Amino acid sequence: xxxxxxxxxxxxxxxxxxxxxxxxxxxxxxxxxxxxxxxxxxxxxxxxxxxxxxxxxxxxxxxxxxxxxxxxxxxxxxxxxxxxxxxxxxxxxxxxxxxxxxxxxxxxxxxxxxxxxxxxxxxxxxxxxxxxxxxxxxxxxxxxxxxxxxxxxxxxxxxxxxxxxxxxxxxxxxxxxxxxxxxxxxxxxxx
Length: 191
Description:
The chain is of the alpha/beta class. The protein has helices spanning 14-25, 49-53, 83-89, 103-111, 123-144, 169-172, 177-180, and strands at residues 6-10, 29-33, 44-45, 58-60, 66-67, 71-72, 95-98, 115-118, 157-160, 167-168, 185-188.
């Protein structure tokens, strides 16, 4: 039984490029678009979307799918790409996967008869994605509001609420789950 599929990976950052490489390594035919700055060995770069999308079983768009005003999130592309033009090039009935899909993209997919799935709406992905996103956002807050004597370290972390002292990692593990919800910031502090 042949498990190979024909897939298109469109836009995104290095995560999308890495995904394209993994899919190719698994034996799938992978076509890429808007990843010019990160070419993937063995993948077929597309120039004409309508021709390139014909015959693919699925199109994988990035997380988040949109950047700015109705543009494809494509930091590895040499040019901006209107998201509506990409959706219009997808053949009707094609499985289209994207993350953090705004309403207008859902509406366009219905209009074009696409089978659109927002993979970030899946609980398993949303929950697993929440921790690294929260850490990244809070790291920026921490850098801006770092308490005196609290330095970055990968060795220990402290939980902190606004207006309260930092709680060292060993003690934070003993906080009941109901109380943990009151903590807003995760600080990396020197132990």
